[in-house]
Fold this sequence. Notes:
CATH superfamily of the domain at 56-221: P-loop containing nucleotide triphosphate hydrolases
Strand order of the largest sheet: 2-3-1-4-5-6
Strand content: 5-15%
CATH class of the domain at 56-221: Alpha Beta
Radius of gyration: 18 Å
Number of strands: 6
Order of helices and strands: HHHEHEHHHEHEHHEHEH
Number of helices: 12
Structural class: alpha/beta
Helix content: 40-55%
CATH architecture of the domain at 56-221: 3-Layer(aba) Sandwich
Bound molecules: adenosine-5'-diphosphate, uridine-5'-diphosphate, magnesium ion
Low-confidence stretches: 1-41, 223-268
Amino acid sequence: MLRRRLSSLLLRSPCSSAVASSIQQQHHLLLPTHAEKPPALNLLRLFTSLAGTDGDRPFIAFVLGGPGSGKGTQCSRIASDFGFSHVSAGDLLRNEISAGTDQGEWILEIIREGRIVPSEITVELVRKAIESSTAKRVLIDGFPRCEENRIAFEKITGTEPDLVLFFDCPEDEMVKRLLSRNQGRVDDNIETIKKRLKVFESLNLPVVEYYSSRGKAHKVINLFILRRVSWTGALLVPFFYEPYLYFFDVHFPISFTRKQSSTLYSRS
Ligand SMILES: Nc1ncnc2c1ncn2[C@@H]1O[C@H](COP(=O)(O)OP(=O)(O)O)[C@@H](O)[C@H]1O
Ligand SMILES: O=c1ccn([C@@H]2O[C@H](COP(=O)(O)OP(=O)(O)O)[C@@H](O)[C@H]2O)c(=O)[nH]1
Ligand SMILES: [Mg+2]
C-alpha cells in the first residue's frame, strides 16, 4: 500500500518527469520517424487495470532485455504487487536441470555455453506454465529468446502477447550486475556473459523489433540512471536506492533499426 502511494507520488514528481524527458531527448535521435507510433503506455495504469481479466486466456506480457537488465527482479515485484503470475523461462529450464530429467544435462550444456535451448523444449515448458497458472495476467520473463522461439510459440499456442516490455540497460551495467549476482549460476562468468550478450544482440533484439513494429513493445529505462542521479544528491528519497524501475514512468515505443540498436548498446 505504502509502496503504491510512494510510486504514485514518484510518477507525478517533477524529478521523474525531468529525468524522463532528458532520457527521451537523449534517445530521440535514435528514433526514425514512423507515421503511426503506438500511443505511450502508462505501465502503472496497465498493471492496476482489469486488462486480461475477461477473456478465455490470461493477459500475456513478454518481458525481454539483455542478461542482467533486471527482468527477474522487476518481474517478481510486478507479480507480487499486481497479481501477475511470473513465469521465468530460464527458471523452467534450470528446474529441468535440477530435476535430472533426460534433457537436463543437454540443457545445462547449452546454458553453460550461452546458447539458446531449442524451441520445442522451451515452448512446451512455457505453454504448460501458462496453462497451469490461475492468474489472469502472466509475465513471461526471458522468452522468446529468438525469432524461431517466437514463431514456434505463436504457432503452437495460437497466441500473441498483449504487451512486450523491453528492459533497456547498457552493457557495462549488465556485465557488472551479472558478475555480482552471486546465485551460483554456471553462466554468470565473463566468457559466457560475452557470448550471452552477443546472442542477445543478434537473436533477441530482432524479437523486440518485431513486436515494436506491431506496436506492442515498450521500452522501460533502467533505474541505473536514477541510481546514478541519486548519488549526486539530487532531489531524491531513500526508496530510489531500491531497484524499483517499473514505477519510473518512462515508457515510449521502441522503434530503432538494428544498426541504431547496436549503437545504443555499445554506448558506455
Ligand atoms: N535496477 C537495478 N539496479 C541495480 N541492480 C539491479 C537492478 N535490477 C536488478 N539488479 C540486480 O542485477 C542483478 C541481475 O538482475 P536480474 O533481475 O537477475 O536480471 P535478469 O533477469 O535480466 O538477468 C541482480 O543481482 C539484481 O539484484
Ligand atoms: O527462453 C529461453 C530462456 C533461457 N534460455 C537459456 O537460459 C539461459 C539463462 O536464461 P535467463 O533468462 O535465466 O537469464 P537472464 O537473462 O535472466 O540472466 C540463457 O542464457 C539461455 O541459455 C533459453 O535458451 N531460452
Ligand atoms: Mg533472469
